Amino acid sequence: MAFVDEYPDAAKVVRANFGVAFIALAIGGLFGLIQALHRTGVFRGLINSTDYYTVLTGHGVLLALVFTTFFIAGLFTWGVTNSLERSLPNPRLTWAWFLTMLVGSGLAAIAIIGGFFPELPLSADVLFTFYPPLQASPVFYIGAALLIVGSWIAGFDWFRTFWAWRKDNPDERIPLQTFMVLTTMIMWYVSTVGVAIEVVVFLIPWSLGLISEVDPLLTRTLFWYFGHPVVYFWLMPAYFIWYTILPKLAGGRLVSDALARIVFVLFVILSTPVGFHHQYLDPGIPEGFKFIAMTNTMFLLLPSLLTAFTVVASMEHGARQRGGTGYLSWLWNLPWDNPAFAGSALAGIMFAAGGFSGMINAGMNINYLIHNTLWVPGHFHLTVGTAAALTFMAVSYWLVPQITGKRLQHRNLAIVQPYVWFVGMTLMSNAMHRAGLAGVPRRTAEPEYNVVDATFPEVLGGMGEMQIQIALGGTLLFLGLGLFLVVMTGTWLAERGRGTLSVNSHLPAALSGPEHSPRVLDNLRLWTAIAIVLILIAYGPPIASMIGDGVLNPGSPGFPV
Amino acid sequence: MDIHRFEKLWIAIALLLIIGFISTVAYGSLGPGVKMIDNSGGTIDAEEVQSGSSGTGFDDPGVTKTGPNEYEVYVKAQQFQFIPGTSQPIEVPAGSTVTFYVTASDVTHGFNIAGTNVNTMVIPGQVAELTVNFEEPGSYGIVCNEYCGGGHHTMEGRLEVVPQSEYNSTEGV
Amino acid sequence: MSGRSGIDGLTRRELLRGGAAAGTAAAGLAATGTATAQSGVDFDGWFSDVSNYDGIVDRRGQDEVTVEVGVQANGSDWGFGPAAVRVDPGTTVVWEWTGRGGAHNVVAENDGYSSGTAVNEAGETFEQTFEETGISKYFCDPHLAVGMKGAIVIGDMGAGAGGEDGGGGSFQLSQEGWLLAGSFGLAVASPLIFAAFLRFRGRDRAVGPSDETRNQLKRVEEREGPPVAEEAPVEAPAQEIEHDEYDPWGTLSLVIGYLLLVVTLWVFMYFVEFLGRGPTVIG
User: Fold this and answer.
1) Known active-site residue A516
2) Chains meeting B at 3+ CB pairs closer than 8 A?
């Protein structure tokens, strides 16, 4: 019996979340195509260059916040229900968080779209990072706050389910999927405190005119307190899929339950005290604190490097169980024609490349070379844009049939989709990285300048070649997105009960199971406490000095966009 | 806890890699002497910068000679220009040590001498202080690399490093 | 005002804007026509991105006319007030700075006059006398991209029947808005349309159950409730490999390969790309 019949209520919640996520993905992806064609100069007929920033804000917020948060909420609802084998306790609470998130996303989206219509008093052309003193409409900030609050209630819902399970199973180890959900949410609670204070204490009153000034450095520091952990909020669900579902899709078993838990514990501890690595080039922050953030960031490589080994070894296990041999020839025994496997595995390969550019981003002084250049979006399109997004799309090919009870439709399109995405991202991302090295800035509608072009150093292939790769890559990515949406809508609209599903939900146990992993790993209180101590060390003194001259000083009045 | 011997090896290698990265960055600071932007520029009132009443070099931004081969350049960034830089280029002589003080009078901007490692955020209320050696004569573009409003893509400037002999050292911009 | 950057900037941006205008030209044709007929003056798209353009304000009969520099427009204080004025030949136009919206200047599109470097002191003025009949377009250099533009119409050209208040700007904008909204809607819906196409073109029906089977299923459903989705069977692996007999040699080779690549690239990035490229911040 599939998930949809076993837990019909939970299946409905997962479907609702996925539905919103896919709509946000469609609109945000379209914005991405418009940008890719606009900034490369291939086609500038649809929008003028001032509206580019409206599109850019929409692309960032809809994809990085709305798509991810809703997809993750759906995935985690499935993960908790499935691994604890019990439904969420209170459907009213569940729908309350869904609606809170939905209303928040809707408000933010309306404020952003308002930027296209100068005659409307709504606008939020402040980009994903909304640095004050650029000021958006209060509707945008209120929407963002509601989305976050909704996600908090969702986390509480999952914790409640876990506590109820714990009462019935006092001595059992936390099932791995639930363990991953809970650790991810602990990290999310700890880190969203920063952006919540920024938005609720400063930006909402400021945009409503209740306070006249805010401190731009303090508010951006609060943003980045949240701004780096948020990337782990996108990534940890991808790891959840790679650890618990990908080995099965490969035909094998997870190599080690203990290592998976260690990785998630390391993320809880290290994800937050690293935000200053986004502010290496900010005046007003002493170099020593930037160095502390760097060492924390570098040690944060460890869980990802461990994951690379464990996940690849689990896939290799699958390939060998399927008859694979040799040092590397087992790679051919992997099910590359299964879209759920191919998408997750290709996303993992791209993440290895994104990992390298992330190592450069983490290096403190080398940041002068690439800060705010196109290198940075080149990097995060490999991480959130592929490691997370492509994995989410891939697992949908496996999960959506189970939550709808419908066979996956248009399987042939689904099989090519991950490869289209992979090729598109390879073209776009490598060109973005190289353009960034040449000094081409990010976040600009027209990267041509009157006096600057001549001084961008000569790069391999030249600027024109890079622009074409970005435009072509962006177009392929949009095509890949279209294919995904066709498969999903087709499946969603298909009839129920026509034959058996082509997938099953069986997840084999780890080779080295939880019985071999230390119990202390499940002590969530301990890891939370260590995380808070590290945060106090990394953030306490600099924030104290920023608010030492007054919480709102040095202040800036708002500059409405 | 079963951890395969290969994975134990990999953990050791990963830790070495991390330490190697940190050491490289530390070498960059201690060897070639790359210094991070920090809080040495102090804070300032952005509205006073806007109105020209801050009582600092930002009231009359430009180049000043402060010693043999040493120059100070105050640059004010605002929507959508660098003052100086956009309307007239910043001029400094080759072979000099130049300290830039950059701040914003309105929103957050970026200050990047294109194609070089001279790159900083420009945050209202904070002064970015950067010292740079310009050995060779040359002409550089300056780009605002942080979104600052609808005309952001037009915000640029120019820096001219002119040969010592051609530089009129008695006046700034 | 630096001739080089200012003028090049104008030429390039105007070219691009021309391209953008061409894109919407087809849809906006009727709107532009209306605007021209109403205001009687063809600004050739000059005001298409100027939010405070509201027709030509008639100031004929005055020797001196004031235009404010830095009035609420285009998302901030980035406008000339009024954006377009009609004056008699021989009138002196005085631009007066409000001190809001950052530093501004006044630069003629045809290079005929310029107030010089952008300044932001309130009360600053710049004046220019217009003798010849015609249209003089001008802009503020720092805020050209966001639509801080204006025009002086000298003489009676195009005045008379039809009135002065052409609402062309806003009408054209909403037209553009509709076009944008329409394309978005269509694009977002396109996967749905495509899915519907795939579904109804008949192929799926052909492989689906026959009418008899459907009726049969219906009867079963009435008897036993709605169908339960059955999962695919779990496949046993070709060969079971247990923990103690598994050495991931392939994984080890892959991660070591990755390590060597990363170390090489790191050395290249740090010592060649970064330290090899000056100047660098040293204090």
Assistant:
1) no
2) A, C
